[in-house]
């Protein structure tokens, strides 16, 4: 039985497959053999991964240095008997843990959704009888009967197929249903999309009938292999979480060192141990940015809301920021870069070439002679050969274009929908009437490769035959051709084939059209009435055209230093054509032909792992790739240090979506598996929405850096105040409970307003932020040190000034607290842009900042003058002169930072060096 595993079933003749499987396609397996194989192979279901218990998953949310610091802060404030603030800090930690737990639980549904794709019924032949059984009961060697509308229940080697077409987009990325042929043998190294004698689990039969032998079930199927890939993919740290973790580790050690230094210094000065310990705890509390997790969460949540307005739904909160750090976007083609609407773009008829304008199923557009030098051709001005070619596409057609909820969609084959629209652009519309009545039809059959219809032209008139299909098949039916002006000429098959090759080289799917006649009175016909009796009319070449907004979005990403890659299951020529139109091939086309700019799955299989990262970085288009290869490409780019966003909609995309730093699933056409594996879902399947989300992500990261640049000087300044006081043997200018007041109120009223700061201009004109760049850059350390020292000098200076003027200790401490608050308030407006002056961007650009400043002033007035606040925080009322001095210190901080900004701009006259690092 183990010999059944790992064989190249597509490479073997059907008879040999049946011999190996020990099955009989006509009679099927008997009940005893089925039971034996079921015991050996198990049920035809996917094995779910071993789950992590909810309790362990929840506890893991606390495994972070930043969380440890916050828990320490909660304990410290509890020791200081400030139970309200201790509860607040612990509440922040708990809320963050709950959010992370919920998001992680959602992500684990990907495998479950994948398993559900196989939960269907199957029609099988067993012991000579055809019956319905649950797909889970299938075993290798079973005979499965397929028909239109069936979901393929297992991997099958086809032994019979009649007009069978299977939609494999979810598995291979192929945009159109694939015609299947049972008898063909396929090379052993052929990619999934080229294995025409196979039908794979989870794909959908769209047309025809077929019979196949089960060659793989459950985890051994191609979709099972993808399930294992998803299970094996580790969840990556986002740039934000990795930077926050490194930043938190740095803070942890710095805080412990400073607290230890403070405690030792206090003991050396002969202070009581309890008093010294409380001073050390005060320093630790002052150094901890309690508001950081809350503001990070708020900032990311605001980013989620902004992205939702731009049709990007975020499933995992950190993905908001990760988008802002993206350096490479790997995009699917169909529906993302293209409109997912087939469109006729070229016509060849009567020896002439024509261009068709417009895109998709929208009737807006025209038919013009090639080059567009002449005016559009209307219904009364069409050359007969062109008119007949368009009419043939309109009448030899089983589909319809309908208007539903403001959108035009095709009921039927997208290719036929494109033919209806091209005829309509020349004024030929079925609703206009006057078209001959259909009498009979020969439906498309894979062995014939054409479709034909018979029409009634009126009493006593010959019946008209219209046929369309592959160029080779239609030419075999034709004895002559229609030339310019409707003249009947000798058929020049070689010239027509050259024209077909020219159109195919443009990535167009080419159909040929022909016309014939039957004697009056006939109401039916067959294949024998066509052979050698038709007149060739023309060719129509169509493609799924790029979205106009995707073209500009790709250009914007490229100007922002983001590499855009197309990874598709479609044919290399089609991929190259679309890539050229959206602007992905310009560097390559300067010295290569379009086909040489594309790497196929077969090419990738020959590239060693050591050379793949360079190939992945240098190539813009990948076609006919397998799920493993998509995953390899993402990993290869990550190995080069890239932050990768990967788009996809099919089951085959799920492993790469999960591996990518940001997996982006399609909301309209995407499978549930893809959506559950992704961090973001696009509601319009449009690449332009990815570009918009990247811009929002950059804005989010910008605002996070602004908050960190704003909050750290406060913590540094407060820590220095405590440290200097202890080292000098002086009374603390600011008490621990007052430090908590400063940290919590300023973070709430001032810091959170930076999360609502509008995006700065030119975000997408900057190169991506280096993923290796730490949060604390040298420039940011300089800024933090400058403001921290100014806060130290201002608070200590005015504290001593107040004491020298005869103010009480409580009044002096109240002034010191006011200095720290005023410095943060003025510095807030410096931080609205870390490089540009607020005089340039305007002070009213962020109304939330103005409102927060007003609330902070009111809160500080309450802290100073409300008796209950005086008792609780050991504060005291102060006079107007004290407030003037406090305001002067705040203004000095503002002016000093603006001077430092001006010097930085002078050093870097070319502008900001990095998009998300305004302080290079």
Characterize the structure shown.
The chain is of the alpha+beta class. It folds into five domains: 2-48 and 114-221, Distorted Sandwich (Calcium-transporting ATPase, cytoplasmic transduction domain A); 54-107, no CATH class; 325-337 and 547-685, Rossmann fold, CATH 3.40.50; 343-542, Calcium-transporting ATPase, cytoplasmic domain N; 702-907, Up-down Bundle (Calcium-transporting ATPase, transmembrane domain), CATH 1.20.1110.10. The protein is built from 32 helices and 27 strands. The strands form four sheets. Strands 10, 11, 12, 15, 16, 17, 18, 19, 20 and 21 form a ten-stranded mixed β-sheet that branches. An eight-stranded mixed β-sheet has the order 8-27-26-25-9-22-24-23, sandwiched between helices. Strands 1, 2, 3, 4, 5, 6 and 7 form a seven-stranded antiparallel β-sheet that branches. Helix 13 runs antiparallel to helix 14, helix 26 packs parallel to helix 28 (809-830) and helix 26 (736-749) packs antiparallel against helix 30 (847-865). The radius of gyration is 35 Å and the shape is elongated.
Write the layout of secondary structure elements.
Blueprint: H1 14-21, H2 31-41, H3 54-60, H4 65-79, H5 83-107, H6 109-116, E1 121-126, E2 129-134, E3 143-147, E4 155-167, H7 169-172, E5 178-179, E6 198-199, E7 204-216, H8 222-232, H9 239-268, H10 273-287, H11 291-309, E8 312-314, H12 319-324, E9 328-331, E10 343-349, E11 352-356, E12 367-369, H13 384-395, E13 400-404, E14 407-411, H14 414-425, E15 437-442, E16 450-456, E17 463-469, H15 471-477, E18 478-482, E19 488-490, H16 493-505, E20 509-518, E21 534-543, H17 548-559, E22 563-568, H18 572-582, H19 586-589, E23 598-600, H20 601-605, H21 612-618, E24 621-623, H22 627-639, E25 644-648, H23 654-659, E26 662-666, H24 672-677, E27 680-682, H25 687-728, H26 736-749, H27 778-804, H28 809-830, H29 838-841, H30 847-865, H31 867-873, H32 880-907
Helix pairs in contact: 3-5, 4-5, 6-8, 9-10, 9-25, 10-25, 10-26, 11-25, 13-14, 17-25, 21-22, 25-27, 25-28, 26-28, 26-30, 27-28, 27-32, 28-30, 28-32, 30-31
């Amino acid at each position: 039985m183990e010999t059944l595993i790992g064989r190249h079933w597509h490479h073997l003749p059907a008879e040999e497959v049946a011999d190996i499987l020990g099955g009989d396609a006509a009679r099927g397996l008997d009940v005893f053999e089925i039971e034996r194989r079921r015991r050996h192979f198990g049920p035809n279901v996917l094995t779910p991964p071993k789950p992590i218990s909810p309790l362990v998953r929840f506890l893991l949310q606390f495994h972070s240095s930043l969380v440890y610091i916050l828990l320490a802060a909660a304990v410290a404030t509890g020791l200081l008997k400030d139970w309200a603030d201790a509860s607040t800090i612990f509440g922040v930690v708990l809320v963050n843990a709950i959010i992370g737990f919920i998001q992680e639980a959602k992500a684990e549904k990907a495998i479950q959704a994948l398993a559900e794709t196989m939960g269907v019924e199957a029609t099988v032949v067993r012991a000579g009888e055809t019956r319905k059984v649950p797909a889970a009961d299938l075993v290798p060697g079973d005979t499965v009967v397929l028909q239109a509308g069936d979901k393929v229940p297992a991997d099958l080697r086809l032994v019979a197929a009649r007009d069978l077409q299977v939609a494999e987009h979810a598995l291979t990325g192929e945009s159109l249903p694939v015609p299947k042929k049972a008898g063909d043998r396929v090379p052993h190294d052929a990619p999934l999309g080229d294995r025409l004698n196979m039908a794979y689990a989870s794909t959908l039969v769209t047309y025809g009938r077929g019979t196949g032998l089960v060659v793989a079930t459950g985890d051994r199927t191609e979709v099972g292999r993808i399930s294992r890939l998803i299970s094996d993919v580790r969840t990556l740290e986002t740039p934000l979480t990795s930077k926050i973790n490194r930043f938190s580790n740095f803070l942890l050690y710095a805080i412990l060192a400073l607290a230890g230094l403070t405690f030792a210094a206090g003991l050396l000065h002969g202070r009581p141990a309890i008093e010294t310990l409380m001073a050390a705890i005060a320093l630790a509390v002052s150094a901890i940015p309690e508001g950081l997790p809350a503001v990070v969460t708020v900032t990311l949540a605001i980013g989620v809301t902004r992205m939702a307005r731009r049709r990007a739904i975020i499933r995992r909160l950190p993905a908001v920021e990760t988008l802002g750090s993206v350096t490479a976007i790997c995009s699917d083609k169909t529906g993302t870069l293209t409109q997912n609407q087939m469109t006729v773009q070229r016509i060849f008829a009567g020896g002439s070439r024509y261009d068709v304008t417009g895109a998709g199923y929208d009737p807006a557009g025209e038919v013009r002679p090639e080059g567009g030098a002449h005016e559009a051709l209307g219904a009364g001005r069409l050359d007969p050969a062109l008119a007949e070619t368009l009419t043939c596409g309109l009448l030899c057609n089983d589909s319809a274009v309908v208007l539903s909820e403001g959108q035009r969609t095709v009921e039927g084959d997208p290719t036929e929908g494109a033919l209806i629209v091209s005829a309509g652009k020349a004024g030929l519309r079925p609703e206009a009437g006057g078209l001959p009545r259909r009498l009979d039809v020969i439906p498309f059959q894979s062995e014939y490769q054409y479709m034909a219809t018979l029409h009634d032209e009126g009493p006593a008139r010959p019946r008209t035959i219209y046929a369309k299909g592959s160029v080779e098949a239609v030419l075999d039916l034709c004895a002559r051709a229609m030339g310019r002006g409707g003249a009947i000429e000798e058929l020049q098959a070689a010239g027509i084939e050259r024209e077909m090759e020219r159109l195919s080289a443009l990535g167009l799917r080419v159909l040929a059209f022909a016309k014939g006649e039957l004697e009056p009175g006939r109401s039916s016909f067959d294949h024998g009435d066509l052979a050698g009796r038709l007149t060739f009319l023309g060719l129509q070449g169509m493609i799924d055209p790029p979205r106009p907004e995707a073209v500009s979005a790709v250009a914007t990403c490229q100007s922002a230093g983001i590499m855009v890659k197309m990874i598709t299951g479609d044919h290399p020529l089609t991929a190259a054509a679309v890539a050229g139109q959206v602007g992905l091939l310009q560097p390559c086309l300067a010295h290569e032909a379009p086909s040489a700019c594309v790497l196929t799955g077969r090419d990738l299989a020959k590239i060693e792992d050591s050379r793949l990262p360079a190939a992945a970085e240098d190539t813009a288009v990948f076609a006919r790739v397998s799920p493993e290869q998509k995953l390899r490409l993402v990993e290869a780019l990550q190995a080069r240090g890239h932050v990768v966003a990967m788009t996809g909609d099919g089951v085959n995309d799920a492993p790469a979506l999960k591996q990518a730093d940001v997996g982006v699933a399609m909301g309209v056409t995407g499978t549930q598996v893809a959506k559950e594996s992704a961090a973001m879902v696009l509601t319009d399947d449009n690449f332009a929405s990815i570009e918009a989300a990247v811009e929002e992500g950059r804005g989010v990261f910008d605002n996070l850096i602004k908050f960190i640049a704003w909050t750290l000087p406060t913590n540094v300044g407060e820590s220095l105040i405590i440290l200097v006081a202890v080292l000098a043997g002086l009374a603390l200018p600011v008490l621990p409970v007052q430090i908590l007041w400063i940290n919590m109120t300023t973070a709430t009223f001032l810091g959170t307003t930076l999360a609502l700061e509008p995006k700065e201009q030119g975000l997408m004109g900057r190169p991506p932020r280096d993923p290796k760049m730490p949060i604390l850059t040298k420039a940011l350390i300089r800024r933090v040190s400058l403001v921290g020292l100014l806060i130290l000098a201002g608070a200590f200076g005015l504290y001593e000034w107040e004491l020298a003027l005869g103010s009480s200790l409580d009044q002096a401490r109240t002034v010191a607290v006011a200095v720290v608050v005023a410095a943060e308030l003025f510095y807030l407006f410096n931080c609205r842009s870390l490089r540009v002056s607020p005089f340039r961007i305007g002070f009213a650009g962020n109304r939330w900042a103005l409102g927060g400043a007003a609330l902070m002033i009111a809160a500080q007035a309450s802290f100073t003058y409300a008796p209950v606040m005086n008792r609780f925080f050991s504060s005291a009322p102060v006079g107007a002169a004290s407030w003037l001095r406090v305001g002067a210190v705040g203004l000095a901080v503002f002016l000093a930072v603006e001077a430092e900004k001006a010097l930085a701009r002078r050093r870097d006259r070319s502008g900001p060096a990095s998009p998300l690092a305004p302080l290079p």
